[in-house]
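Researcher: Re-running this chain for the archive, since the previous output was lost when a drive failed. Same request as before.
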Amino acid sequence: MLLGLRDYVRKNRFRDVVIGLSGGVDSSLVAALAVMALEESCVHGDFMPSRFTSDLSREGVSALTGALGIDLEEYAINSLLEAYFDGADRAFSGQWRSLALENPQARIRGNILMGISNSRGWLVLATGNKSELSMGYLPFTETWRAATR
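Model: Regenerated structure tokens:
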């Protein structure tokens, strides 16, 4: 896994990687693997809290970045989240409203990470649906299918 990550980064001419850190196990593991595969100076963490973010998440991210020796940038997303809801409130109406409201934070965070990637030339490393599925999270389509059976 480390060899594959190191080779992919280098062969695609990236020097640095960026990871959205939540304080959770998945993003922490990705950060640790990145440091093991690359130099810690090439691994950058981003913490993007909202009003829903717990103090424990913040403490976890701080402990992780300190232990790994990687830098950390913070982008508060409250104002973006509120603007998102204000501008697209009608899009969140309907029988699946509660499911739809779970995703905007992830979308906003993904946009920030891609902006960093595009402007700095860093590769975004992230966890995917397989890790979420293994932990019991059902994506919207699976939840919808189960509810309409």
